[in-house]
């Protein structure tokens, strides 16, 4: 896959107002802490601002007989208090910034794990992950540092300007003239910082996407000798992140250097004009000294303002990506309701003229599927690949919403069920039997966290996993590796079956759940499923008819339609497609004989 295919290019451009609202939404819960931090910063700045005044008073007293020790003590106290308050303010703000990031991550994580499946399928998980990790980190600077720097820098700037104006309006005019001239040039480069930062964040997202893809198919990459090609794709994304990061730094450097330059040029201009005014007796030398100190002091708020502006540009890019992830549709939990009337009993399932397609632009996968499954017993779904069998299970679990028709469980439309309650009734073993990294025990109790040890032992025996657990040095606490890589395919399937059984479902969905088992284990598991089917409704998708010949009913699907329903013997006799499937698998015989056959 070329790099461009994994790049997210759907980041919506937020307007300035939307960016600000999104930003405010993130720091609103922490606004009082931000206010406290800002007040500390202002108090520290005020203490600093008083220093030139104290210095002026000190210089004025130099020629006279007044003692300067009082002023010196005041100056020292101002420095100490100002520094202490600034330190407290910095801590409060950094702590708040971390809290903003934590809250944003919690919100994103909470939403991402509740996303609707179609949303996940049209995004790149790696890119979503980078929004939780990398983009939220940028929020830290933009929600506190930038905002507080803007407030404190702005207020200090204004206060300094007012005091300078009171000292000498002419020198203030000279200063402002220089600053506005250079500041205007800086404003022009700001959008460049935002553009570069956005591209850089997108490239970081690509790195995660490519790596996630690579680790998800690690063996395939090795077996295909594709390491170098994949590394090159990651390298291209990393280089792009570097390129745009450097571009952003270049514009930031231009901005900061310009500000330094503006203050220095102002300093020289004030020195020249101020010197002339002192020489002509228009102002005393103490005024010039104080004014120059103010000018020196102006560097900090001006730098703060530029810092705020650059951080805001960087954060705006991250906010856009966070907002995009926040806007992905999550699942509707459904109506709040009490326990189902039929709790504990085997579930009855009915598909009533169900039509479904995965996306509006795709063709229909189900063209009016109808069947009825009474409570308990085993029902098998068979048919050619792509007929829509797995889709039946996805619709029952409400991973997807039907485009037409109804699905009823116990006679109640599944859209009327609270989603959690619906899924709590179901045990689902997927086609590729996913096992999560962690221990065997964690995998088993994944769908039933409160399961007792006896129940775990029981399902281990039923899933024929007891022997494996006894052999493992750490038993149930053995770590199974990323996606269960330390287990065989058959072991993974048995773990998935045990997990589903431990949930004590009313409806058990098995999708090719025993396809990787050896004949002995497959037979044993078939018996277990038959036993479970006595008081649980079991729906099975199977390609190997040998696993389903004893089912109570078999639903034959073809191209998104149900073409026949019956027992093995009935279908062999009257459905040509089923007859053909059975014949190619040497099963066109009595169920008793066929049951043991392996294809
Ligand atoms: N998530 C999806 N997004 C888009 N199309 C999908 C998705 N899942 C399945 N399809 C398509 O829907 C059709 C039915 O798929 P489904 O998995 O239900 O078939 P199946 O009968 O279970 O096939 P198999 O026996 O090979 O597992 C296929 O054409 C498939 O390409």
From TrEMBL:
The keyword Nucleotide-binding applies. It comes from the Bacteria. Pfam families: ABC_membrane (PF00664), ABC_tran (PF00005). Keywords: ATP-binding, Cell inner membrane, Cell membrane, Membrane, Nucleotide-binding, Transmembrane, Transmembrane helix, Transport. The chain crosses the membrane at residues 32-50, 70-93, 147-164, 170-190, 253-273, 279-299. It is found in: Cell inner membrane. GO terms for biological process: oligopeptide export from mitochondrion. GO terms for cellular component: plasma membrane. It is a multi-pass membrane protein. InterPro entries: AAA+_ATPase, ABC1_TM_dom, ABC1_TM_sf, ABC_transporter-like_ATP-bd, ABC_transporter-like_CS, P-loop_NTPase, Type_1_exporter. One of its GO terms (molecular function) is ATP binding. Residues 349-584 form the ABC transporter domain. Residues 35-313 form the ABC transmembrane type-1 domain. Belongs to the ABC transporter superfamily. Siderophore-Fe(3+) uptake transporter (SIUT) (TC 3.A.1.21) family. This is ABC transporter ATP-binding protein. It comes from Streptomyces qinzhouensis.
């Amino acid at each position: 896959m070329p790099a461009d295919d994994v790049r997210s290019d759907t980041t919506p451009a937020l307007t300035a107002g939307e960016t600000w609202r999104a930003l405010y939404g993130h720091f609103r819960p922490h606004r009082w802490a931000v206010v406290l931090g800002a007040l500390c910063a202002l108090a520290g700045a005020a203490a600093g601002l008083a220093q030139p005044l104290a210095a002026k008073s000190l210089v004025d007293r130099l020629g006279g007989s007044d003692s300067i020790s009082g002023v010196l003590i005041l100056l020292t106290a101002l420095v100490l208090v100002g520094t202490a308050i600034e330190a407290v303010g910095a801590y409060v703000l950094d702590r708040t910034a971390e809290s903003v990031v934590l809250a944003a991550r919690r919100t994103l994580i909470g939403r991402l794990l509740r996303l609707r499946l179609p949303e996940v399928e049209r995004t790149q998980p790696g890119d979503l992950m980078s929004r939780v990790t990398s983009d939220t980190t940028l929020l830290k600077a933009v929600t506190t540092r930038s905002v507080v720097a803007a407030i404190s820098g702005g207020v200090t700037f204004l206060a300094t300007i007012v005091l300078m104006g009171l000292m000498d309006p002419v020198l203030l005019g000279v200063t402002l003239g220089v600053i506005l001239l250079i500041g205007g040039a800086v404003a022009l480069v700001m959008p460049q910082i935002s553009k570069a930062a956005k591209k850089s964040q997108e490239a970081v997202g690509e790195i995660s996407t490519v790596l996630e893809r690579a680790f998800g198919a690690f063996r395939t990459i090795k077996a295909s000798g594709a390491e170098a090609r994949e590394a090159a794709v990651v390298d291209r994304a990393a280089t792009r992140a570097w390129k745009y990061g450097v571009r952003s730094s270049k514009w930031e450097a231009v901005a900061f250097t310009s500000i330094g330059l503006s203050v220095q040029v102002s300093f020289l201009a004030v020195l020249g004009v101020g010197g002339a005014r002192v020489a002509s007796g228009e102002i005393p030398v103490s005024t010039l000294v104080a004014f120059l100190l103010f000018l020196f002091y102006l560097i900090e708020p001006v730098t703060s303002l530029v810092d705020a502006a650059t951080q805001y540009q960087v954060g705006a890019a991250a906010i856009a990506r966070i907002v995009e992830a926040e806007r992905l549709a999550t699942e509707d939990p459904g109506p709040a309701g009490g326990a189902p009337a039929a709790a504990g009993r085997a579930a009855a399932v009915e598909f009533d003229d169900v039509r479904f397609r995965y996306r509006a632009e795709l063709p229909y996968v189900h063209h009016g599927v109808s069947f009825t499954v009474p409570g308990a017993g085993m029902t098998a779904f068979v048919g050619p690949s792509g007929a829509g069998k797995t889709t039946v299970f996805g619709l029952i679990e409400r991973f997807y919403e039907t485009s037409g028709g109804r699905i009823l469980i116990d006679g109640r439309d599944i859209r009327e069920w609270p989603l959690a309650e619906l899924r709590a009734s179901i045990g689902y073993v997927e086609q590729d039997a996913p096992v999560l990294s962690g221990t065997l025990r964690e995998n088993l109790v994944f769908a039933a966290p409160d399961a007792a040890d006896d129940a775990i032992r029981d399902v281990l025996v039923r899933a024929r996993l007891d022997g494996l657990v006894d052999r493992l040095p750490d038993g149930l606490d053995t770590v199974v590796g990323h996606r269960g890589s330390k287990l065989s395919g058959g072991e993974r399937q048995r773990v998935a079956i045990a997990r589903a059984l431990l949930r004590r479902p009313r409806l058990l969905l098995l999708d090719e759940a025993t396809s990787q088992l050896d004949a002995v284990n497959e037979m044993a598991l078939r018996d277990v499923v038959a036993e479970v089917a006595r008081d649980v409704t079991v729906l099975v998708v199977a390609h190997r008819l040998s696993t389903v010949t004893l089912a109570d009913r078999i639903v034959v699907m073809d191209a998104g339609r149900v073409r026949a329903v019956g027992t093995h013997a009935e279908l062999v006799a009257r459905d040509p497609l089923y007859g053909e499937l059975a014949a190619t698998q040497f099963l066109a015989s009595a169920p008793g004989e066929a049951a043991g056959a392996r294809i």
